Amino acid sequence: MPQGRRSIAAGWFAVPLLVPASALAHGFAVRYDLPAPLGFYLAGAGATVVLTFLALALWSWSRTSTSRTAPPQMVLPRAGRIVSNRWVAGVLQAIAAGFFVLVVAAGLFGDIDPYKNISTTFVWVIWWVGMMFINTFIGDVWALVNPWNIIFAWAEKLARAVNRNARLSLDLPYPRKLGLWPALILFLAFAWLELTWGEGEDPRKLASVIVRYSLITWAAMVVFGRRTWLVHGEAFAVVFSTFARFAPLALGVTGHGGLRCEHGRETNAGVVTGCAACFEAAPPARRAIVLRVPGAGLLTQQPVSASMAAMVLTLLATVTFDGFLTTPTWIAIHEYLQALPLLAPLWEAPWMTLKLKFYLLETPVLLLFPLAFAAAFLLCCRLTSAVGAGATTATVAGHFVLTLLPIAIAYHLAHYVVYLLLTGQFIIPNLSDPFGFGWDLFGTASYKADIGLIGAKFAWYTGVIAIVTGHMIAVYLAHRTALRIFSDGRQSLRSELPMLALMVAYTMISLWIIAQPTVQ
Amino acid sequence: MSDRTIHGPNAAQRNEALACARPYARVRLTMLAVLALAGGLFLAVPGYGAGTRTVDIEVRNGKVVGKNSVRVTRGDTVELRWMSDKPLELHLHGYDVTVHVVPGTPADMKLRAHATGRFPVEIHGEKKSSGGHSHKPLYYLEVYPD
């Protein structure tokens, strides 16, 4: 049927022109989210504005400066000892390293169907989304189960067992100027792989990326030493520990008496809080778990470094970019850019492929988003420093940047709750048959995901409540930060206005995205 | 295909319970009352046992003619009737329903919309030419809460 074939060919030809190459937007799998109805969006937006003004009014009436005292915390030395117990830590590390090896092996040798291979669901849903939530809402668990750290530490131990003087690391001095930039660059590369690459659902390619990242990490650990690289260069240690600043539990080192954490973490009431490197280096008797008010870890006595501020802004931007990628607005921008006469010669070039076209459209935006966020943020910091005397823009930025994080956390929760609970169920059959070879280790190989586990209404309420709550936590943290920087109460209130305006805008964007239909 | 049907109180079971009601009459009667109540409640839940939605969808050149989504309410019985100008294998994600469409004959996807969400229908059996990018869904089934 030549005519039929021609029409099929014509159809194929038309597809790339009519259909914008659209993203999977997450490393893997289809999303079933229903956009939040207009009412939810309006209620969330209204609550955001009204509550922000109420808080401001409240603060301008009562001029007490109780907020200057440090937030309360409780030190749990026994919990610290349990976590660092040889057996507990050993089992935890063995499980973590075991999963790491399993995921890489399954990716390399298992079935190439992403739903049958454990690597895709484990990496994109359980680890990337799940681990982030664990670190955010419990504590820096990643620091205890980081397989790159565990495997390298084992290799160090093995080397020492063979020869007492053997050292795996050259321990070259880490250039201070580099700060967290290596972690930031590696994280951007990861964000590109997650959001733009579009091939993260291919188990082979995913495994090969993991192997490459492992080689980079271990090579850098050889050069600079394991702990140095974990603090400055291991992207996930840096990202997850940044989110863990929000968490109610933190790793702590007691008896530091006046000593400062050399990695820039806070010392609260004599306890170094939230530094995994100090925790690991400390003798077990001084390790503790610190229980604190959620969000308290985002308040800092010293402004964070420029590279840390850049890291936080990049996190905020990529979280939003992730959601923005699936909105019809983004598809419209895609179409507009593809139809632009100025760019036409580029799109029609003989070497142009559909994939390359997609990368060229998406990559600059991925990089522009953090820059746009940074520009907006620095502008607000500039205004704040102009209003409140005695603090430079850089100081203001270093103090306020972490206070924005709760909005990103809340948006992240709103964005991923359905994905985690529905798509995450694939891990159940995968655990019984990790390679897709037809095994049934735990009798769960034939489990089918229950798509009715959570309904759209639950997701909408969770999303809007989370975003408004996150916003209010951010506003409160910004207020406390302003009180800390600026001595004059009235001045501090005025100085936080630009930041509150930025927070309202950021929250509105988050609400707007969850009210958009997901286009994939 | 995992079309979930929700069973109401079973008529056969009820008859059996009535037939040998002598020795434990009171127990059985209580059980029956509970069953009937549960069944009644089940049927009273709004949305459940609601309407049947039949949608005719025409695919031409691998694209849907007209609107590319349908909005239904949770609990509806949905019947998507596909017509295509060429043979296709269509897959509804989430509900995990697959049909093969042959030109000239409508193929039905029938399901009870028990779960809310926005579920894409994709053409399967096509080789993806550019990684994950090219498979734009053909159609969306949107199930809203009642």
Structure report:
The complex is a heterodimer of chains A (520) and B (146). Chain A is mainly alpha-helical and 520 residues long. Chain A has 2 domains: 21-70 and 304-520, no CATH class; 73-292, no CATH class. Chain A is 63% helix and 4% strand. Chain A has helices at 2-18, 38-61, 77-83, 86-109, 118-137, 142-145, 147-162, 181-197, 203-224, 226-232, 235-243, 276-281, 306-324, 328-339, 344-347, 354-387, 393-400, 405-423, 427-432, 456-485, 489-495, 497-514, and strands spanning 73-76, 249-253, 267-268, 271-273, 287-292. Chain A has a 5-stranded antiparallel β-sheet with strand order 1-5-2-4-3. In chain A, helix 8 (181-197) packs across helix 11 (235-243). Chain A is globular. Chain A starts with a helix and ends in a 6-residue tail after the last helix. Mean pLDDT of chain A is 89; it is low at 1-25. With 146 residues, chain B is of the alpha+beta class. Chain B has 2 domains: 11-44; 52-144, Immunoglobulin-like, CATH 2.60.40. Chain B has helices at residues 11-19, 25-44; strands at 52-60, 63-64, 69-73, 77-84, 88-92, 97-101, 107-112, 117-124, 139-144. Chain B has a 5-stranded mixed β-sheet with strand order 3-9-8-5-6, with no helix packed on it. A 4-stranded mixed β-sheet of chain B has the order 2-1-4-7, with no helix packed on it. In chain B, a hairpin with a 2-residue loop joins strand 1 (52-60) and strand 2 (63-64). Residues 1-8, 17-21 and 127-134 of chain B have low confidence and may be disordered. Classes of the chains: A mainly alpha (520), B alpha+beta (146). The A-B interface holds A 4, 7-8, 10-12, 14-16, 19, 21-24, 30-35, 197-202, 353-355, 358, 418, 448, 450-452, 455-457, 517-518, 520 and B 2, 61-63, 74, 85-86, 93-96, 114-120, 129-134, 136-137, 142-145.
